[in-house]
Amino acid sequence: MLSVLIDTLDDEEGLARTLACLVGGAVEGVVREVIVRDNGSGDGTLAVAEHAGCHVVTGGLAAAVGAARSDWLLVLEPGARLESGWTDEVAAYVAHSSMPARFSRASGSRAPFLSRLMARPAALAQGLLIPKRRAMASKAADAEALARGLAMKTLRAGIWPALGRQGR
After folding, report:
1. What is the three-class DSSP state of 106?
2. In a domain, 105, yes or no
3. What residue numbers bound the domain in which 25 lies?
4. Which residues contact 106 (CB under 8 A, 6 or more apart)?
5. Which of 29, 62, 73, 106 is the most buried (most CB within 10 A)?
6. What are the beta bridge partners of residue 31?
7. How many Cα neighbours within 13 Å face the side chain of 114?
8. Average pLDDT value for residue range 52-74
């Protein structure tokens, strides 16, 4: 089982999209809990998180990681959507590995060529699957910094990056 961590700020629509794709993982017993680390949202983000039964953390990233009850964390941007079948791939991976991983980009999710040339890739655009102990050892201030610079395996399961982040 794994804990899902979503680092958010004023993105209630994106959070709702991401939570919707996690329902199957909860039903299959792969997702134990969802932790939403809110950075001071002024819109309905907190209401969406609370209505969905998420654990809301308003402290730093270390507090959010510390609140996780599972040995593995799945870190996603609000608005990111996992393709169907992701649960089998993730369950098999965490059973036999201790290395961080990310998802493959879903076919059709790439931004236009010039946009990809001009933009810096977001480290979290393809999600992050990381052992909790490794995340706890990090000094990262936010989820994006946690994913930056890690050597990772790429899973076959696909992800649609958050809208507006596909070319970054």
Report:
1. coil
2. yes
3. 2-160
4. 83, 158, 159, 160
5. 73
6. 2
7. 0
8. 96
